[in-house]
Amino acid sequence: MSLASKSPEPRPGILDIAAYVPGKEHAPGVAKVHKLSSNETPLGASPKAIEAFQAMAFNLERYPDGQARALREAIGAVHGLNPANIMCGNGSDELLGLLCHTYLGPGDEGIITEHGFLVYKIQILAAGATPVTVEEKDARVDVDAILSAVTERTKMVFLANPANPTGTYIPVDEVRRLHAGLPEGVLLVLDAAYAEYVRRNDYAAGLELVSASRNVVMTRTFSKIYGLAGLRIGWMYAPPEVIDAVDRVRGPFNLSAPSIAAGAAAIRDQAFVATAVDHNLTWLARVAEALEAIGLRITPSVTNFVLIHFPDEAGKRAEEADEFLTRRGYILRAVRSYGFPNALRMTIGSAEANEGVIAALTEFMGRK
Ligand SMILES: *Cc1c(COP(=O)(O)O)cnc(C)c1O
């Protein structure tokens, strides 16, 4: 008796999806847990965002503004963009999905990279299209590899810049070269979830490229530096034709009213963002240096996380380190599903958490 004869059958591709597994949250039996597995900020949200969220508690019977105007206007004001070219989503994950459902169908190909964010592949498959994975070079996106994978079936290219879980980036010149090499009918999606953290002269999130072309979109999130992952707020900056098309697919009230209010207050508080950037720059350098000093290899990161590579040696592997750390209340992210079976990704946390991980890994690496 086959399953298909008993229950409705999902569309082709759906059962090829490996469902997304979020970072671990629990360390059983440990009193104090430091969750460093999902790139959340240790600084929480801006007090102004929290206040705006709380104020909405007395208006919950009303539908939210389906256009999220207050939020789009705040984003536009802070980034110098026309709000008409901004669309908000229930997290940027929703926007990535909407883009796939708007532009991809059976027979189409979406290009992703070897260690790319898993949501791209999931959404390409969900749209019935075919993900095409290209290799990276030293955990960095390889523009030439992407360009040589383009066929007449290619409809979308996904690039996280900086990338997760590697923390690496490609310079703006490389992004331009990638765009210049793509046919006009291919949509280039620049996922800039960690853009705020980057302090490099040759980096750009992609705003100018979006403004100057008809086939580039940039997605951003309030889940990382803004500390609002629990509210689910993302946005994209896109050409008018893309906004118009995706708007037809989007749920009419995809952001909640508290999300719209909190997001608008959060983005207007750029002093809070600056504090978060400073905290991260200080600790990113300290953590990387300390872990390298005990013999671990770190992929150079411009984000709020580091990819830690463990020795290929019994007792010293990533899986064992993960268990060792979890027992002490430090939850990092296993990244086997991203093609790194012997690495862990660590989010830069509070001073206490960072120092705790350094101390625990020093003990781990020193054990006989
Ligand atoms: C965290 C992250 C996002 C953000 O997702 P949200 O749905 O906005 O929370 C998007 N892309 C990448 C690469 C990420 O790491």
Automatic annotation (TrEMBL):
SUPFAM superfamilies: PLP-dependent transferases. It is an enzyme of class 2 (transferase). Its cofactor is pyridoxal 5'-phosphate. Pfam families: Aminotran_1_2. Its EC number is 2.6.1.9. InterPro entries: Aminotransferase_I/II_large, HisP_aminotrans, HistidinolP_aminotransfase, PyrdxlP-dep_Trfase, PyrdxlP-dep_Trfase_major, PyrdxlP-dep_Trfase_small. GO terms for molecular function: histidinol-phosphate transaminase activity. It catalyses: L-histidinol phosphate + 2-oxoglutarate = 3-(imidazol-4-yl)-2-oxopropyl phosphate + L-glutamate. Belongs to the class-II pyridoxal-phosphate-dependent aminotransferase family. Histidinol-phosphate aminotransferase subfamily. NCBIfam families: hisC. This is Histidinol-phosphate aminotransferase.
